[in-house]
Amino acid sequence: MLTGKERRKKILELIKNTTKPISGTELAKLLDVSRQVIVQDIALLRAEENDISSTTKGYVLKTSENCRRVFEVMHSDEDTENELNLVVDLGGTVLDVFVTHEIYGDIRANLNINSRRKVREFIEKLKTKNISPLKNLTLSKHYHTVEAESEEILNLIEAELKEKKFIVE
C-alpha cells in the first residue's frame, strides 16, 4: 500500500506520461483507492502548484512546454467560425476570448477550443441560443489567448490571421 505522498507522486507520473486525459475512476482502479481519494489527491497536487486540469474525459497536466500568445483580432460574426478553425487547423488551442471594455475593463470567457468539432459546438450554441459574441461589446475588437506546442506554430497562426485580415494592425 502506497503512502499518500507516494500515491500523489504516482498520480502525477501517470497524468504526465499519457497523451490523453485519464479519468479519476481509472486512476482509482490503478492505485486501488476510491475515486474520492483521487479527487482529494488532485486537490492537494493542485495546491502544490501542479497545473492539472479537469476535462470531461479526465485529468490532464498542462506543461510549460506549450507556448502561449495573445492575438488582438477583429472580424464579422460570420467569420468567427473561420477564425477559430484557422487556429485549430494549424495546431493551436483557443484558450479564451476577452475584450477590454471602456467601463467594465477586461471581460474574459474561457473557451478551450482545440478541434473543428468544438468550433462547431461553440458556433451552434451561439446560433441556437441566439447569443451575441463577446466581441460585439467592443465593435468586434477582441483578444484570444492561443496555446500551441511551439513558437513556430504560433508564428504560423499569426501569419494566417494576418493574411485573412483578422489581426488588428
Blueprint of the fold:
Layout: H1 4-16, H2 24-31, H3 35-47, E1 52-55, E2 58-61, E3 67-74, H4 80-89, E4 93-101, E5 105-113, H5 116-128, E6 141-148, H6 151-163
Antiparallel strand pairs: 1-2, 3-6, 4-5, 4-6
Helix pairs in contact: 1-3, 2-3, 4-5
Report on the structure:
Helices cover about 40% and strands about 25% of the residues. The protein is elongated and about 60 Å long. It has about 170 residues and is an alpha+beta fold. It contains six helices and six strands; from the N terminus they run αααβββαββαβα. The protein has helices at about 5-15, 25-30, 35-45, 80-90, 115-130, 150-165; strands spanning about 50-55, 60, 65-75, 95-100, 105-115, 140-150. The strands form two sheets. The protein has a four-stranded antiparallel sheet. Strands 1-2 form a two-stranded antiparallel ribbon.
Task: Describe what is shown at a glance.
The protein is of the alpha+beta class and 169 residues long. 41% of the residues lie in helices and 25% in strands.
Question: Features of this protein?
Answer:
6 strands; four-stranded antiparallel sheet; two-stranded antiparallel sheet; alpha+beta; 169 residues; elongated
